[in-house]
Amino acid sequence: MSKTYNSLYIFGIMLVATIGGLLFGYDTAVISGAEKSIQAFLINPLGLGSFAHGVTVSSALIGCIIGGAISGFLSSNLGRKRSLLLAAVLFFVSALGSGYPEFLFFPKNEPSMGLLIMFNFYRIIGGVGVGLASAVVPMYIGEIAPAAIRGRLVSFNQFAIIFGMLVVYFVNWGIAKGQTIEWINSIGWRYMFASEAIPAFLFGFFLLFVPETPRYLAMTDQDQKALAVLDKINGKSTGAAILEEIKASVKKSVKAKLFTYGKKVIIIGVLLSVFQQFVGINVALYYAPRIFESMGAAKDASMLQTIVMGLVNVIFTVLAILTVDKWGRKPLLITGSIGMAIGMFAIALLSYFNVIGIGTLVFIIIYTASFMMSWGPICWVLIAEIFPNKIRGQAVAIAVAAQWTANFLISATYPSMMEISGAFTYGFYGVMAVLSALFVWKMVPETKGLTLEQMDTLFTKNK
Fold first, then answer.
1. Residue 125 contacts by C-beta under 8 Å, 6 or more apart in sequence?
2. What's the CA gap between 417 and 426, in Å, rounded?
3. For 59, 193, 249, 260, which has the most beta carbons within 10 A of its beta carbon?
């Protein structure tokens, strides 16, 4: 296939869009450095236990479920671009509100149930932004990108998510370094949350300069605008032909019923989302410093080990970006599932025999590296591309809402599960990794190299 696309223009659009991915990672991982301070500042003084702590750490996920669920309605009615602008505003408000939840209503540094609720409210607002961005950013990139490089470009969103996590690990470490626990518990955690306002502002600003996706423009009868974007992306020689293909795929019914292409494609999308979370990845990301401290690391050392884990995540996400359009989606997913199962079963055994040390760190890295070169980026690639044009908005919304619901269930139950048994907890995630491999092998089709319009045919055949 000859290269006919404008690489520089596409790359610029992708960089702006993936700031949304960076904020996704930043917002979900900022809690890793602040969760113990929130426990000391709000949970313990109110006499609340591990369940309240788990729910507070995971409260943003409630917003993520809401954001994911409404993403289809917003992306179909506001458009992909304006939905992302709304997400940027939500990120900004959440960053400042989470850093100073007392604003207007409560005296500073006086813990109360009302203040805990307000903190969670601001975290939920940020979660709505994350839920929106998690659905719309891959959709936006997928609808902009040429088929030959779509997997690579959508995978860059996962790179941005992981890079956002790595950035916030450095920010949290920099804020905490050399400070007393008392200072971190009263002031430092505020800086951690408020720091997100900077990338949120930049996201909203740069979005003003990127186009709406040609597929959304075509579906809303803005053909001339769609053609202008396609010409700029693909060149004038092919833009018109691509527009005709897009129009042919949506002309029968822009608002198709969800099961127009059968139930299988919806089930595949939902199960991809659920397995991506049930393997336990966000437990490792949200509670990373606490896990390393439980292994015997000091406070500063635990955050440094978290940074090491973040660097490994970036390296293996880059591996996925380089291979997804060459090796295909299925081989990477199955390989990653096997690696995650090995890592989690090993950690479960070490936990059962109460063995802590470098071995645990090694297997955590094996586990996270396996996830980052497979399920991390590839799940988002498939969710962005697998649904036919006519149902993409509503189907992506269902898949993403399912993902965040699964994320919330896993993250909120982790502290309580660990009180029962660490070996059982990590063993459960290992079993989920095995089941995810079987699911991909049996049910998920290979979509490498197919255009978004060809998904219609793929699932018409497999109804």
1. 63, 90, 93, 94, 97
2. 10
3. 193
